[in-house]
Inverse folding.
C-alpha cells in the first residue's frame, strides 16, 4: 500500500472514463478518497454512478460531480466542497484529464468540407488547457494544495505531430504543456510538483472520436516494443508511484508513459 495515498484525498477531473477512471480505482486500491468531476448524460452518468459505488465498496469515500469542469461555477462549488470534505487539509493528487474538444480540420478537403470555427477553437483550448490553470489558481487560493501535492495534466504525442482533424486539440496540448511548465515554476516555492504525462496510444472514448484512429492505433501497436497499446492502468499505476515522495524536485516535465512507443521506429 502506498501510505501517501492512504486516507488522503485526490481530485480527478474527467473521472468517469479512461485515465481518470483508472486513476480513481488505483487511488481507492491504496485506501485514498476520491473527489471526481465528469460531464456525462444517460449511460455515461450511470457508469459514473457505478464507479462511485465501486470505489465506496473498497471502504473509501467517493464524491462525484456531474458538471462541466470548465465552468467557473462548477469550480467554485467543487473547491468549496473539497475544503469541507478534507477538513481544509487539501488534496494529495490532482489529475487533469479532460478530453472534450472539436475534431475538425483547419482547411477543407474532399473528405471534409466543414472546418473549425473560432468558437470551437477557443472552446477546445479553454477546456483542455486553460482550465488546468484556473483549477490550480482556485485550489491554491483556497489553500488546498499542501506541500508534497502532485498535479498531473494529460498530454499526447499530438502536441508535436500533425494528425488529421486534430489541429485544435494539438494546439490545446501545446498550451497545456506550457501551462504545466509555468505552474511548476510558480508552485515550486510551495513544494507542489506539476508534470504532464504523455501517455502512449490508448483505446479510450476520446481516441475513438478521432477520424482514422483505428488505423493509427494498429500502427502504434505494431511499433511499440511491448507489442501492445498503453492501457489506462499503466498510467494510473505510474501516477500512484509518483506520490511516494513529498519531494517537488521532479517538476515541469513532459513524462512519456508509453512503453517506448514514441522512440521506436
Amino acid at each position: 500500500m502506498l501510505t501517501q495515498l492512504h486516507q488522503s484525498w485526490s481530485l480527478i477531473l474527467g473521472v468517469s472514463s479512461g485515465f481518470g477512471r483508472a486513476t480513481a480505482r488505483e487511488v481507492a486500491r491504496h485506501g485514498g478518497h476520491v473527489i471526481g468531476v465528469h460531464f456525462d448524460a444517460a449511460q455515461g452518468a450511470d457508469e459514473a454512478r457505478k464507479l462511485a459505488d465501486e470505489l465506496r465498496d473498497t471502504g473509501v469515500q467517493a464524491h462525484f460531480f456531474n458538471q462541466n469542469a470548465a465552468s467557473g461555477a462548477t469550480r467554485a462549488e467543487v473547491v468549496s466542497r473539497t475544503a469541507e470534505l478534507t477538513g481544509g487539509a487539501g488534496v494529495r493528487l490532482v489529475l487533469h484529464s479532460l478530453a472534450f474538444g472539436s475534431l475538425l480540420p483547419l482547411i477543407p478537403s474532399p473528405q471534409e468540407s466543414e472546418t473549425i470555427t473560432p468558437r470551437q477553437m477557443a472552446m477546445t483550448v479553454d477546456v483542455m488547457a486553460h482550465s488546468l490553470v484556473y483549477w490550480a489558481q482556485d485550489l491554491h487560493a483556497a489553500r488546498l494544495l499542501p506541500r508534497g501535492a502532485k498535479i498531473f495534466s494529460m498530454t499526447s504525442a499530438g502536441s508535436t505531430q500533425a494528425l488529421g482533424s486534430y489541429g485544435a486539440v494539438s494546439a490545446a496540448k501545446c498550451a497545456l504543456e506550457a501551462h504545466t511548465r509555468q505552474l511548476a515554476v510558480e508552485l515550486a516555492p510551495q513544494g507542489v510538483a506539476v508534470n504532464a504525462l504523455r501517455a502512449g496510444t490508448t483505446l479510450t472514448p476520446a481516441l475513438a472520436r478521432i477520424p482514422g484512429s483505428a488505423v493509427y492505433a494498429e500502427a502504434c501497436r505494431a511499433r511499440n516494443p511491448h507489442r501492445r497499446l498503453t492501457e489506462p492502468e499503466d498510467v494510473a499505476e505510474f501516477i500512484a508511484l509518483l506520490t511516494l515522495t513529498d519531494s517537488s524536485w521532479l517538476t515541469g516535465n513532459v513524462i512519456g508513459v508509453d512503453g517506448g512507443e514514441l522512440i521506436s521506429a
Observations:
- Residues 118-141 form the longest helix (24 residues).
- DSSP finds eight helices and seven strands in the chain.
